[in-house]
Amino acid sequence: MEKKPGSNRLDPRMLDHVKIRWDLRPGDIGSVVSLHGVLYSQEYGYDHTFEAYVAAGAAEFAQAYDPHTDRLWIAEAGGQTVGSIAIVKRSESEAQLRWFLIHPNWRGLGLGQILLQKALQFSRECGYRGIFLWTVSYLTIATHLYKSAGFKKTEEKTSRLWGQMITEELYILQLATSSQRNLKSS
Fold first, then answer.
1. Is this model's pTM higher than 0.85 or not?
2. What is the DSSP secondary structure assignment for residue 29, as one 8-state letter?
3. 18, 52, 61, 94: which has the fewest C-beta neighbours closer than 10 Å?
4. Residues 79-88: what's their mean pLDDT?
5. Rounded to an integer, what distance in angstroms lies between the CA atom of residue 176 and that of residue 23?
6. Residues 119, 153: contact at Cβ < 8 Å?
7. Does domain 12-185 have CATH number 3.40.50.10780?
8. Mind giving me the DSSP string for 65-100?
């Protein structure tokens, strides 16, 4: 991990080495699944069933992918996937935010905020009226980002998943329609 000399903070110039793209390429789905499987195992003790869960959703996404209504952003550095986020169409008016993850070596630089803003902007451009996501209760940095973007927690449930007792949380963001934005700017 690159750091400024004499500092415990990451060097923000590291972001200059990150390329964010959304042109879905062979290997992208696998890199997102692998990153999730490895990091959630290392950081939270999740078992192989979590990777299978991510892989099933990612396969469904890849099969139905429409770049006009769905998007997967890949953050790359040195040819490696270091982060991701996706918007998946669920209905004409609603999308799901999925696979939001930043590799630990690249956290703290604002990359998560950049990816989240890209996802929200795309959702607005698509005309979605709402976005929902499921997360787990102890991902406090991610939930802080969601809340600061306007997401509200609407539900939680605790169950045994991925080899752990997990409290899942549902967050929803209501997006202003173009007519609502026009009224506010008048």
1. yes
2. H
3. 52
4. 96
5. 27
6. no
7. no
8. --TTT-EEEEEEETTEEEEEEEEEE-SSSEEEEEEE
What is the residue type of 32? V
pLDDT tens profile 98-157: 999 999 999 999 999 999 999 999 999 999 999 999 999 999 999 999 999 999 999 999
Residue 165 clears pLDDT 90, i.e. is over it: yes
Tell me the residue length of the chain: 186
Mean pLDDT score, 8-31:
85
What is the C-alpha to C-alpha distance for residues 74 and 138, in angstroms, rounded to an integer? 24
Run of H or E residues at 32: helix 28-44
Every domain of the chain and the residues it spans: 12-185
For 171, the 3-state DSSP assignment is: strand
Burial class (CB in 10 A: 0-12, 13-18, 19+), 148: exposed
How much of the chain exceeds pLDDT 90, in percent? Answer: 84
